[in-house]
Write a structure and sequence with these properties.
Layout (H helix, E strand, L loop, with lengths): L21 H7 L4 H28 L7 H24 L8 H14 L3 H4 L2 H25 L2 H31 L7 H8 L6 H5 L18 H7 L1 H13 L5 H7 L4
Helix pairs in contact: 1-4, 2-6, 2-7, 3-7, 4-12, 6-7
Bound molecules: zinc ion (2 copies).
């Protein structure tokens, strides 16, 4: 059933996907030492701030009933954000864009023609970019814990629960996505979370990997994929953008999929 992830259509006859795909090899070689350094810094900073904020949130726990709805709202926001960013990078832009294209669009193109490459990425490459995104809000939260009065922190507590759940799930999105592509050697607790649909389940994410990759973009919990598909959310957004800009959705993605030499 792994064959269902193969892109259909043009490019037939040559290597259709996987690390030997000509496009995949070219994209893998564009991963640079500077990019690696940015990812290392991001991961270290981000995880230090997460630990710091977690301890401070715990120490306030006795002040406030733990706000479950804030947590759920934070997780839903993270899932939607993952869908929006993933949809944006899959559908628009190009690897040829200066700086941005090579650093942030390249991984999305690589992922469609070589979906298992992500399972060979180590912790730093998997999580570096998302850590970079959450450093500033986490640092802001840490700064507030250090400078605000207990009364002010008490007031902000539900908001901080929301922001913390959002930051945690945004940070872990790529790790969760990587697990959804891993079929061997996953820890028992990870498959348990997948089976309970607390994180993106493997079968659920396979729906996105059917060419031309036009639905099920949310990759954190995947909770919003079904409702957004029912609403035709991504389709409508694409029609709107195409009517305004004249750009064709997924033009660059299709170009890489068709590369044979
Ligand atoms: Zn995709
Ligand atoms: Zn995927």
């Amino acid at each position: 059933r792994a064959g269902s992830e193969q892109p259909q259509g043009p490019g037939r006859g040559a290597v259709r996907w996987g690390p030997q795909h000509a496009g995949a090899r070219e994209l893998a070689n564009l991963y640079s030492p500077g990019k690696r350094c940015q990812e290392w810094l991001s991961v270290i900073l981000c995880f230090s701030l997460m630990a710091f904020n977690f301890i401070h949130l715990l120490s306030c726990l006795f002040l406030h009933f733990f706000s479950l709805s804030s947590l759920v709202a934070g997780i839903l926001t993270a899932d939607f954000a993952s869908g929006l960013v993933h949809w944006g990078a899959d559908t628009w832009g190009s690897v040829d864009l200066p700086v941005f294209g090579k650093a942030f669009i390249r991984p999305f193109r690589e992922h469609h023609i070589d979906p298992t490459a992500i399972t060979r990425h180590d912790f730093i490459e998997t999580n570096g970019d998302n850590c970079m995104l959450t450093i500033v809000p986490l640092a802001n939260m840490a700064f507030n814990f250090l400078t605000l009065s207990p009364a002010e922190i008490y007031q902000l507590y539900p908001l901080y629960c929301y922001l913390f759940a959002l930051a945690i799930f945004v940070t872990l999105t790529n790790q969760i996505h990587k697990w959804s592509h891993t079929y061997f050697g996953l820890p028992r607790w990870v498959t348990f979370l997948q089976d309970c649909h607390i994180i993106l389940p493997r079968k659920h994410h396979r729906i996105h990997h059917v060419s031309p990759h036009e639905t099920y973009f949310c990759i954190t919990t995947g909770w919003l994929n079904y409702p957004l598909e029912k609403l035709g959310f991504w389709r409508n957004l694409e029609d709107l953008i195409q009517s305004v800009t004249g750009e064709k959705p997924r033009a660059d993605d299709l170009k890489w999929a068709q590369k044979v030499k």
